[in-house]
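Researcher: Structure for this, please.
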Amino acid sequence: MNKKLRLEELGRKSLEEYKLSVKFPIILVLDDVRSHHNVGSAFRTADAFNVEEIVLCGISPCPPHREIRKTALGASESVKWSHQKSALDFVLDKKSKGWKIVSVEQCSQSISLESFKVEPEPSLIILGNEVEGVSQELIDISDVCLEIPQFGTKHSLNVSVALGVSVWEIAKGFMP
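Model: Predicted structure, token format:
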């Protein structure tokens, strides 16, 4: 019989153990993401997939905030984060240091996620505003734009869903 595990049976790290553990070299950049719930969800996803850091840029809300905390379920305490006024300046700095720049966006030369060859290399994943998406200036300096295949009538996914799908695919490249 298949039995649902209780929380204490999952064998998760304590907050202190998690903070001291080696993370995957993945940085999430949320540029002008307006929703506290999307930001909170990003923290929870980052914790789940062992992401090194979240960088909140522009108007993206920052912890501590009740709505972020509600969605993050404590992950805003475990995941390293910072706020940068300019996403462009931050991304250019990381690019100069050899980080692969990945924008999750529908572009004329996007690579469909299922065709993307994941390499275990330091990767910066950019997600943009809920209405406008990733800015053209960030797309212009990206090494690759990833597009998530969709088969319905809508043209996009929620930021937090797109983030989860993309981060999972890239994090798989670092798994033993």
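Researcher: Any notable elements?
Model: DSSP finds seven helices and seven strands in the chain. Helices lie at 15-20, 36-48, 66-72, 75-78, 87-96, 136-140, 159-171.
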